[in-house]
Every structure is written in C-alpha cells, then in structure tokens.
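Mods, move this if it's the wrong board.
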Amino acid sequence: MRRKRALRTTALTAAGALVAVGGVLWLNRTDDRELDGACGGMLSMDDVRAVLGDDLDVESRSNDASDTCQLSDGDSGSGSAKVTIVDTTWIGVSRWNLLPSVESSAGDMLSVPVGNGWSGIFTASHYNDREGTTTLLLTCGEGSAKSSAGKTIKGVAVTVETELGTTLDNPADRPAYVRIATGTAAKAAKAYGCVTDLGDRSVRTVGLPVTEEEFKPLSAASGTCAGISQTSGVTTARETARSGAPREACLLGDDGLGHDRYSLQAYFGAYATELKANFEENRYTSAATPADAPKGQFEGGGSHWGTAACPADGEEAVFTVSSVTDKGEQRATAAELRYERSVLRTFAERSAKAHGCSAPTTP
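Not the wrong board. Structure tokens:
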C-alpha cells in the first residue's frame, strides 16, 4: 500500500489546516492535488517527482517575501530538496538576507555558473559530495506585474538545496541537482507575472565547484582571473568560467594551498542589491560604501570597490578586491594598494563586458 503523501509541519495538528502565525503562512495538506499547491503552487512537481520519486513528504511555509518547501523521498529517505522562492523586490525592505550566502573566499569551494542561458550558480558542500545547491536569478522586465511590496516586481530568485543518493563527482548525475530549480523558475516567473527570458529547462551538463586544490598558474588563467598580471608573491589563481553567473570570484595566491593573497568578487542583479542593502543596514560611520558611491576604498584601507551600470540586470554591478593575508596591524604598502587597484580594474572590465554592462568605474 502506498503511503499517503502529506504536506506537514510540527506546528499544526489538524490535517488540511491553513494558519498564519507571525506573518508566516503554514500549510498542512494530505491531498495530492493540494500537494501541487505547495510553495504557492510554484513547484514544478513533474521535475520534483522525476528527481525525488512519487512518494513525497513536504513541509511548506510562505510569507510576503518568499515561499519555502522542504521535500523528501517518503519511501527510502535517500533524497531531499529544500526549495526557496524569493520575490527580490523585498531585498532592502525586509531586514533579513533573502539570498543564500555564496562563500568565495580562501579555503572555500568556488561556485560555478549554471550556464545554459540562466543567470545562476551551482555550489557544493565541503562535507557531503551528495549535496548541491542551485540558485537562479530572474530579472523581470517591462510589463511585469506588481509585487506584494507594492511596486512592479524586480525579480525572482529560486534556490534549491538538493541531496541525493548519487555523487557530484559523476558528471552524469549532476544535472539532477539542477532540474528542480530550472522547472520551478519557469513556474515562478509565470506565477509572479515576471516578464523575463528563461534559460534551457533541460540542463545536460553542470560544472563541478572549484576546490582550494584546483589552482593554476596565473598566466594560464582563462576564466574569471583572465588578464590579471602577476606581482611578487602572486603567481597562482583559482577561478571559474563566467557564463552569466550572478556571482563571480577570482582568488590570487602564491601557491594556492592556503596561501591566497587577494580575493576579487563580482555581484550582479539581486546579489548586488543585497550587498548594498547590507552596507546600508550596517552603517556605523559616514564613510562611503558601495551603497552610496560608485567607487572607493573601504574604511580601514586595503580593500577597494568599483561599479558598472547593467541595464539587463536591473541593478548596478559591484566589484571588490580585498587582501586575505593576515597582516595584523600592518597596513598595506603603496605598491600593494596600486596592485589592488590594477587587478580590480582588469577584473571589473572583463566581468562587466561579459555581462553586457557598461565600462566600470574603479578607483
């Protein structure tokens, strides 16, 4: 006998209940047809079932800014997915970070682009080679509907954290980690009335996030670190391809193994919006930040930023460079600061051009 599918939460005891608690909408359902309404009806259930199977346990909650569903294989428990759909119009309005953190610093794995026409990234776990996270950003254009924030919707972000009984090391298995996200993004765009260009629903190849051991000579860099010049103590690079990713990183070092020297980061679309909102939210001095100036040096020295207009993303992009070497109280030398500004300029120019943005403004 097949087990009954349930949309459940521990906060409720009555099946079929619909309760609002603290501004959050919790659903508890048992009917298959109503299961299809989880996450505001924006889940691509055909893709969910293709990846996780037919017998599903689901928990779902919604608020003004986002819908979240936790899905698991009710038969074997070997697969699960957490789906978060965000109305990015709320970024800067809500006090919470609405996008997933993308760690791209020394020691971290670098996320890779989803590609295939998507503005998206794919990230893996350091500790579990069966777990991967996909984030897709949709920018809503002219003719889009109004958001619950009271103005025309700016965009939609879909993030899916998937764990399966397969391994990311096998290229043939990786597309399954992206499938729920691409299908759900298409449904979310329609549900929100977001006029946008979608990527390919059938992603057949996905790259593997870059580990700290995967460094190369800086002179051989051809992706996010391409064109950057060497200097004393900076001879290696960790990089990824670009392919329209809304977050890019380039790490420069001397040997790559725990000796990164500089971190270059690019933020596009909703990621740039959230970065600026965080600077504004955490402002404690009158010093300029990317929230209010197109270029500059961060307070304390040793880090710089620049920006570029990106009409297709609906937001100005932000590019940063920072030293990741612990120097204690020692300040960067004039030569080091010149090198920072030089590599930021190269990184920003190439990144902006690849995204169809205007020439960047840098220090």
